[in-house]
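Q: Structure tokens for this one, please.
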Amino acid sequence: MEKGRNSKNKISERELRRRKALKKRKASLKASAKRRKNSGYRKIQLCYNLIFIIALLFIIIFGSMHVFTKKKSLRKEGIDYYNKGEYEAAIESFDKALKCKQWFSDSVNVDIEMYKADCYLKLSEYSDAERVYSSIKSKYPAKYYDRKKVDFLEELSDALDRYKYGDYVSTVACFNRAVEAGYTEMSIYAASCYEHTGDYEKMKENLDIYTANHGNTAEICYKYASYYLAMNDYESALSYVEQGIAFGDGVYYQEFLYARIICCEKKGEFDKAFGYAADYISTYPDDTKGADIYAWLDTRVNPDTDVVNDIFGQNGNTADDNNDDVPADSEIIQ
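A: Here is the predicted structure, written as tokens:
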């Protein structure tokens, strides 16, 4: 009985050792599988790391060409030229800046394009300005610019281009809208349109707007003189003519000198007008209108002498006999 019990205990111990060995083997196999699995993960991680490093190197090497460019320095160079009034040089710098391919630069590009368009406006190259405004709308998302402003500037550029070629009727509405929007410098264009269409009160209204916001210039004096001549107010016209002459030699200088003659003649100051006419034809000997008014004034100042110019006839006819030869007020400053 005792012997059988011992045998059963021995079997149990043997079974226990077998089970332990089996359990240990299973644990070993499980650990081995886990090591193989971890090794696979490490290989995958290593591949990801290599891909990341290669991508990073790509961004650093090639991406830097599109991130770190001369775009901003060229933009600054263009703005410096713009502020100096060197608009053609500014456009060259802006074009170079736009050619720099840089990521995430739409906002900067729009700013550069706006400066470029304004340069064209300053150079009176209105069709080119219109083209730039149009390209902004086609190339860049609307979040980078004020769509209404760009639309308006495009329309204004078109109006200025048509005005440049003599369209004074359809363009004036755009200039008026510009003045209402705060672009008071456009009032000079509105004034010129009204002058050409004969609406002199609106012409003066716009001249007053310009002067109040931008001061007096030779061109403004020229326009005011034209207005007062059209109104037959020769005293006021002469005042602006004298102011214009004081600006010195320029685009309107010759016209001011001629208008001074006419103003004095209209006021009945023939001696003074004749003296101015003599100076005028001395300075501009090839100007036929100067020679003509000088000849006419000669008949007033020296009625008993031979006529200087035969445009009034060989018999010494005076302006009273042939009024068609006397310049009309509307022809004085053109």
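A few notes: The longest helix spans residues 2-67. Confidence is low (pLDDT under 50) at residues 62-67, 310-324.
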